[in-house]
Amino acid sequence: MSRGGRLAVCAVLVAAAAGLVVFAAMAFVGSTPSTVDFASGHEAGQPVDITVQTVGAIGFGPHPTWVSYLVKDPQGQWVHTTLWQVPAHTRVDMTVMQYDSGSPLRNQQWGRIVGTTGGVADYNGTPESVINSNDTNGVGHTFTIPTLGINVPLVGISPNAKNPCGSAPCTPNFNHNVITFSFETPGPGRYPWQCFVPCGAGYLYGNGGPMSTVGYMGGFLEVEA
Amino acid sequence: MSTATPGGGGEVHHFRRMVAVWVVLSVALDLVYAFVLGPHVPPGTMTSTAANQQSDFNVLFIIAVPVVLAVWVYGAYALITWRASRSGPGDPAADARAHSHLGVQIGWIATTTVLVLGLFVFGLVELVVSTGAGGGQGPDPLWTPTSHEVLPVQVIGQQWAFTFRYPTFGGFETHDLVLPDDTTIAFHVTSLDVIHSFWAYQLGVKADANPSEDNIAYTTTQQVGSFTVRCAELCGLWHGAMFNDGRVVPKDQFMVWAQTTERDSAASTKLLPPFSYTYVPDANGADGGYYPDNVDPYSNVETYGAASPGTSG
């Protein structure tokens, strides 16, 4: 092969490699969920209200059958993301609308409410400090920030519910539980949170798929100064 | 400067110079290391195993310093004394004797052999005597503590957090790892799903957490303070977030903490399965819990503060 030919082959290979790198970078950026900003415009001393819902099947996107969290942004729109930006040293009032069913916990330790204001959470208006997942409808998910010592089990709806939600975003017309609790944000930092119920059905030990993909059953609490 | 010539008395002179420089530097650096840096080498001295590991690191370093310096001093001396640009004695590297000095070869091989075999024996001894190595020894440890007061603490790995059970305090489970000072601890490490690794860095303890395995690691606390627990086995998306802070506290504070936590956890403890050294987790996702594997859950040598439920009454 002539020198010119060899150079041309090299140029094509380099261009192909560069294209692959750009494609991979674009794919990564494109697959990263957006961040919902609860910190901007926040008035000092005022609590932040965050409303989320959990659904048994997201119903859209690349994995429509995956279980997932959604969050309501400050404009009132449901957003499919688990990245939340919140102000530091501020009370967060959480409302979880649990549309998914539950099951007994693998480790009942996750049935204990810890790290919230008063060590309790309200389940449809009733304060509880421990959930017995064997007695109730079971626990569908948890909202847990391990590094902050926060854990709240989310009791599932009845397996015989007449009107379960099939895909997100779910409206209050469907069967659901309302779980509310509060906690204080720490100083600035990036705190991972996740569900500790292995709800990735079809994956080994239930911890693959949505349990291992940011945007579904785990994300980050990005605490801003 | 020496006027050494091949075959002349200057060779001995060079050798003595190099040895003198080497001895002075080795002694000086080893002394500085042993008394200034050595006491601060990780993982510290919070436990017997950590202190033992620090001591081992220091022994290795102190032995390595003269070896490294022997090479460096010779190299530096040769570069300075026999570099080609200097007019002086001929380059000994070109001399036939430089390729086959039997005494040097035997000395080097003998010295390094003694060092390597000596460290091999030293390493083996350190693994199984004195205070143990701090590593997981499986369900039948080769080294066991002599103390009659051993606190068993179960470490349960799960994607993606460690929880801890205290069988001699009613078997409560907690996210906080609190240990009493001046006490031998038996960590019983297991997992509910994939393989994790319990690495309590400042405690000098590291043990794999395997499902259905009871991996035992011993240590004895000897300082109060805080330490960090990390998972040291890549175990999935949130592996990097799988860490805890732990504390070693005075014995009386530990008893208060343990008894308070036992009381406060009573409602959730009664929902846990009976304590067992290993469990059989349900692999079918969210359904079902984890179950004792019917192995006798209590050792007759591990009691602390309260009678083991399995032996009381």
Detailed description of the structure:
The complex is a heterodimer of chains A (225) and B (313). With 225 residues, chain A is of the alpha+beta class. Chain A has one helix at residues 3-31; strands at residues 35-37, 48-55, 68-72, 78-79, 83-87, 91-98, 121-123, 126-128, 139-145, 150-155, 177-184, 189-194, 218-224. Chain A has two domains: 1-31; 34-224, Immunoglobulin-like. Chain A is built from one helix and 13 strands. In chain A, strands 4-3-2-6-11-7-8 form a seven-stranded mixed beta sheet, with no helix packed on it. Chain A has a four-stranded mixed beta sheet with strand order 1-5-13-12, with no helix packed on it. A two-stranded antiparallel ribbon of chain A has the order 9-10. In chain A, β7 (121-123) and β8 (126-128) form a beta hairpin. The termini of chain B are far apart. In chain B, 34% of the residues are buried. Chain A binds chain B through residues 103-109, 111-112, 114, 129-130, 132-134, 140, 144, 146-147, 149, 151, 192, 194, 196-208, 211-214, 218, and chain B through 156, 158-161, 163, 173-175, 192-194, 236-238, 241-244, 265, 267-268, 271-273, 281-290.
pLDDT under 50 segments of chain A (min length 5)? none
Global structural class of chain A: alpha+beta
* Total individual domains of chain A: 2
How is the biggest beta sheet of chain A arranged? 7 strands, mixed
If you consult CATH, what is the topology of the largest domain in chain A? Immunoglobulin-like
Q: Say what oligomer this is.
A: heterodimer
- The fraction of residues in strands of chain B falls at 15-25%
Please give the radius of gyration of chain A in angstroms: 21 Å
Mean pLDDT of chain A: 91
